[in-house]
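Q: Predict the assembly, please.
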Amino acid sequence: MINYGIAILLLPLLSFIIMIFVGKKLPNRGDWLSIGSVAITFCLSLSLFIMMLFKYDPYFKVEKIFTWFNLGTLDLKIGILIDNITIIMLLVVSLVSTLVHIYSTSYMKEDSRYSRYFAFLSLFTFSMNGIILSNNLLGIYIFWELVGLSSYLLIGFWFEKESAANASKKAFLVNRVGDIGMFIGIMLFFSSIGSFLFKDLYLGVSQGMFSVDTLTIAGLCLFAGAVGKSAQFPLHIWLPDAMEGPTPVSALIHAATMVAAGVYLAFRLFPIFTPQALTIIAYVGAITAVFAAIIAITQNDIKKVLAYSTVSQLGYMILAVGVGAYTYGFFHLVTHAAFKAGLFLCSGSVIHAMHHAYHKLDDHKSDAQDMRNMGGLKDKMPVTFYSMLFCTIALSGIPFTSGFLSKDAVLAGTLAFSSQYPNHFLLSLFGFSAALFTAFYMFRLIFLTFYGKPNSKKVFDNIHESPIQMTTPLIILSSLSFFLFFTFPNFNPLSYDGWFMTLVKSKDSLVPGYLNPTAYQIKEEIGQAHNLALFLSLSVAALGIGFAFLIYYSKLISPDSIYRRLKVLHNLSFNKFFIDEILKKYLIDPFLKISKYIAIFDWDVYDKYFINGFGRITENFSKTVGNLWDYKFLDQKIIDGFGRITKFSGSKLRLIQSGKIQNYLILVLVGIIILYVFQAI
Amino acid sequence: MDLNSYLIISAILFSLGLFGVITRRNGVAVLMSIELILNAANINFIAFSRYSGMDFSGHIFSLFVIILAAAEAAVALAIILNIFNNFGSINIDDANKMSQ
Amino acid sequence: MDNIQSINFFIPELILVATIAFCLIIDFFLSKKNSFNVAYVALIGIILSGISLWFSSPLITTSLFLNSIVLDPFSRIFKFIFLISSFITILISLDTSELKNRSLGEYFTLITAMILGLILMTSSVDLIMIYLSIELVSIISFILAGYLRFKMISNEAAIKYVIYGAFSSGLMLYGFSLLYGLTGTTKLFEMNKVLFSHDFSHINLSLIVSFLLIIAGLGYKIAIAPFHFWTPDVYEGSPTPITAFFSVAPKAAGFALMVRFLNSLFGDVNPLNSENWVSIEGVPWQAILLLLSALTMIIGNLIAIQQENVKRLLAYSSIAHAGYILMGIPLLSKDGVFAVVFYIIVYLFMQLGAFYISIIIADKYKTEKIEDYAGIGWQSPFLGILMSLFMFSLTGLPPTAGFIGKFYLFAAVINAGTQYYWIAIVGVLNSVISLYYYMRIVKVMYFNEKNIQNSFVPSQFSILLLLILGIPTIYFGVQWTYIHEWVDSALKFFIPNF
Amino acid sequence: MDFNILSWLIWTPVLGAILIVILPKNRMDLIKWIAVFFTGIQLLLSILLWFNFDNNIQGFQFMEKSPWIPAFNITYMLGVDGLSLPMVGLTALLSFLCVFVSWNIDKAPKGYFSLFLLLDAGMMGVFLSLDFFLFYIFWEVMLLPMYFLIGIWGGPNREYAAIKFFLYTLFGSVLMLIAVLALYFSSGRTFDMIELMSTAPTALSQISWWGFSGVKVVWLLLFIGFAIKVPIFPFHTWLPLAHVEAPTAISVILAGVLLKMGTYGILRINFPMIPDGTVWFAGILAFLALINIIWGGMCALAQTDLKKMVAYSSINHMGYVMLGMSAVVAAGSKYGSNIAAAELGMNGAVLQMFNHGTITAMLFILVGVVYDRAHHRDINGFGGLASKTPIYAAIVALAWFAGLGLPGLSGFISEAMTFLGAFPVYRNIVILSTIGILLNAAYFLTSYQKIFLGKLNEKYKDLPEINRREILILVPLAILVIFLGIYPTPLIDIMKTTMSEIIFRVEASELLVK
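A: Predicted assembly structure:
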């Protein structure tokens, strides 16, 4: 079992190493190698998954601990942990990864750095599997940064574009901000426990080694890592920019897997979060969900819409963790991975087609990603259209889809939480309004892209359905949005009971003092809120779709009139609430300016005046002494001064004319007198 | 006369010598002032020797000083002569090429 | 020991006296052109004197000529120093173009005579003898400084020197007379006894005044601030070999005299407790000397930074070195005296070496300006490397002898107690300052390239002489056990009480 | 032992230098190959030493001791332990590689390589000597060749840089000399470091200077001497200048080895010999580390000269070393006897010394590569080079990411260890220091983007790719960076016994008792 884990971890790494060094020289530029390795990974994950289904044990767990190094008294231990969650995550990652690999063989065919692209994908798969398999915080942190690296490399894959280069840097740096928080959290835990293992962490917390305050702070610090990686407010800014990368990359990394790592971490750490921490987490999630959804409404770039949608959905998951419904959050993570990856790949298919059309027309100016340039593509690209439609339905939360089940569960969780703590009613309000906006902007996307009149006839004529390597993954992923895959022995489309909910059991909080409700209590409450949530979520989804239909399909309401009426809101939404600009103006630019001042100070002031000042003082002093030597000072001032004084006293010493040698002699006498005075002191 | 009178005289001589050394421009006059200083010391030696009455080393010392003063004066005068040949003056502050 | 018995222990000095006489006679028969041959007579005399000194027993410690002169290993070391430095100076004088075509008979005679004076300075223990020997050295110095009779600056140097010298010795003499009056004797050891057996607190004013006047006289000899003002003018005006000689030998003698005078006068020198000695109370002579030491280092270095002329730079830096050496005297410990002697030995080689290279370069390129040294390191690697070596050594960087000298000085200061740390810090910081100007010469020689591609190889005579100076500079930096033991054993018999 | 391997390590390059001096000037190739040969032998010897070193023995191994100046109790004493061995290996490796880095030196190669070999010997001597006097001699001897190497073969402002470097370091070392002597006399006249470790802690507390205990005074004097080498703020301004002006190989040596001497000295001398002073100063040390990290990082961020940026990054990275060192006090019962934290900090510090040595060597060599081709180092003057020189860009990316502490590369684990070690004692300082991690990423990524990403600058469309010699120089370093990032155990095993010993000595300080 552990060997499976090690194989899953190392195969992509091997492929990365081979590809980066000799990938170009391999036949077919080596894509088969990457695909092969990730496919084997998938097979291994699948066999693990089947094993899990056969065992059907919610508490199944295998762990292997290694000593990384020893420092005398301290053994630094790391290791691999395989349980149901791991297996499900591994399956999701390897599946999406395999499909994206296949998709990419067509999508990236013409790229000159084809083999490097696959090498980076392998690197990503390796790092992501590493996060999933780690049984300790340090391991997670290491792979956490490594997925950041692969994300950096892939976002900046087309680095000739200035915007891509900027986006990749931004992604890395923003993620690092979160990582620093996470590292501080790790240090807080490690300094008390002396180990990074989850096992020891849980043990330590349950033994009450931490005060509630420390635990809150430490938990929030670790959560900061999740905020960065899962693009939660206010560190969400990198994700929309990350869409500069190739679309399959967006599908794999920035929709399905890497961004979900934050949720995965929160999921792992749930038992040690204190109520205070969880409340903050819930609010962060809720705000992100609704905030990103509002922005998504006004975006015109098809990938940007999906990006903000991802941010919003990640907010949901975090919200679910915050309100205690974290297994449902994880459920949403899995379902969302499938249909969001599907959506991205579909959008990629559209962009690919548009791009080719523009290419054929020799038009290099028009934006192949702008939805306003599309329209009516339904008939030209039927496979893409139906796949995308089904995924959209899932995302909007319509019954018979997986999205409905998971979203409904999360909303039920918020509802239950709000009913328990009525002063936190905003959480469920945010949740439901986000659902409303989601349905609206997703159908806006569908209507703008696939319905209506094409923007340009010429382009429209040149649009073709994508090749089979691209459409197959679309079909697979969209079909995975069917509810039955997740509720298998249970055929009720409105209930989420099934293998998933059986195998993924929530744990009781380990925070001492029973501050948090037990897992059973939460489950009961959510069950009670289920029906209400069902009703509400269906109605908001219908409302959202209805609005979208009215505005963008039947055009009964002109969007412009709404824009005009809600100009301020629209501006805010369209400009992403100016978060980037605010951060740049009030945080980054001042910081850079301070750096510049410090550098100037260091080099031109401190060094030049202070350090060299010692030299200059010495030099000037020596000049002064030298002048003293030349008697500019001594001769003119002191000796002549003596003369003046004596002259003033009226004696006949005016005849005194100090010759040079006499000056020396006077100085000797002065010296003796000074010494006499000195010894007397 | 007691010891103190001699010491006062010698101190006055010493001071006069110092004054002369510092104020005189003429090289020979400077040398003469230096002689005053030496003689002040001589007076001291002899007075101490006479009044302390331990041995004659004070007297001997002053004899040596007289001899050496003569030798020194000889060399100094030779140099001053040289200066006179080169600079055309025996004013010691005229010999001042280096500081310029 | 009476005068006749003393003759037996006075052979090296007598050989020098004979040499002086012989030189004068030989010179009488030589034409002006050939007068330089007197140098060989002088050299032979120095060698003979050195040999007889070498074979004299290093262990004998006695006083000669009715307790006016002592014979001890301490003065023996200095005798060697004077013989070696004058030997080298004579060789340098033979090589330099500055002294070509002049009547040199007297020149070499005077140098030889000066050795005698220097030797007497280090061995005198009687005020009369001290005064006599100082005057002997001074008067000869006046003549040598003005030896280039037709050169204006040489004349100027001589007149300044003579007036300054006479004035200082006048002050010192007055100080001596006061001291004599206080103690009633001219013998140092008897003075010491008197000073320690009587309470001088009621007349400590006269003691202090006499001490200050004497310090002024001695300070002039070793050129410490504020009695150093004559130095640059005299050093610049004198013939360069004489400048080199002045910056080493009379200084060494002055320090030897100072060590002996101050320690035997103010220190309770108990041979049984030979590590640290006790000073008399009432005269803060240690504090004054430390202050002068700090002042001397600072002033010497600061003015040296300014100099554009290598010779002047070396002259000023010799003031700074006097400051370093002075640090070891008021410590009243064997370590301090040891360090002073050690430093003077290594200083002899590096200072003469640096001066000699500047003479070679002045002869070849007709310049003493630092900036004109550009590229010499590439044109003449031998001169460049040796000059760098001397510069490093003068700065006090390992692995050169200069470092070891400084090391012992600082070690003595640190060992003397924490109350002396400040002077050690002043000292080390000054050696950092000195790095700046010494390295400027190295920098110019190597970093500033000139287009002159023709290489320059010094004469074999110069190379040999430079090796004689350079090898000890590096060798004593790496292995100085012998020299350490030599100096150390000499100090075991330092200044016994008679 | 008959074969004095440590002496051979030191004197082999000296032999080479002498041989080169003897050779005629025009045998350029021979001169270089002699340098290769002798540094190669040194490298082999250090590898031999590495494999014969017994990790489990406390104290020093391969000791050599012979009298030198018996009158002053100065001995020629060498030895190696877990602290010096990694430094010896680093020195040998970088010296060997730097001979190849300086392959194209055409101005007076004879002088260059002989001075280079002398420098090599001096560095080796510092790390191997156990006699304090010998240590000091090597410490200073190293300055002389360095002065010439910067001053003659450096960039446009080389004279200023050389003298500044020299003055700065001499200033520090003369203060150190006073401390050396104070130690010598207060501990019964010995320079033997091993003996000093046992006698000095009590001896120093018996002297005082103007009301300050000798412990503090001597600690500070030593510290200033070492701090200038590290360099620790505010003694750091020589570094950017010297690094920028020095030729590439010398920058590599400066940043790779010379800076380590400062921290090596503190660990070798200050920590075990004056534990009281160490405890007294540890907090300030941590604070200075913080300033180094932030100040260096911010200065690096603002640079437009690539080499200067790398130079400032050294200041930043050495801050981590100091942070780790300050963690040593965690072992005391006053801080809860957290020996694990002290171990993490100390091992992390030494590991970081080694890793920074390899990483910064790569950085400087890479800067040298582009400078050789483009003849300038202005970060804003390039653009899009990645599409022109993909291999170079890839290696730079590796080095840059190693520099910014990416997990999987060696910089990460040592930085993390220093943070983890110092955290229990200096929580707030460490939390503030983590900003440094962000700064690292910011300046490395910004410079990388400006140079390699974006549109290709038309000026450089014919820029030649990195050549085979340069790649071969970088490969061993890259392998080390990756290997130690994944598996630091071989290095940690070597140093951990020694580190525990130092921790034990510091822990013995009374100031650490609760």
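Chain D touches chain C at residues 68-72, 108, 136-137, 140-141, 143-144, 147-148, 151-152, 158-159, 162-163, 166-167, 170-171, 174-175, 177-178, 181-182, 184-185, 207-210, 214, 217 (CB under 8 Å). The mean pLDDT of chain D is 90.
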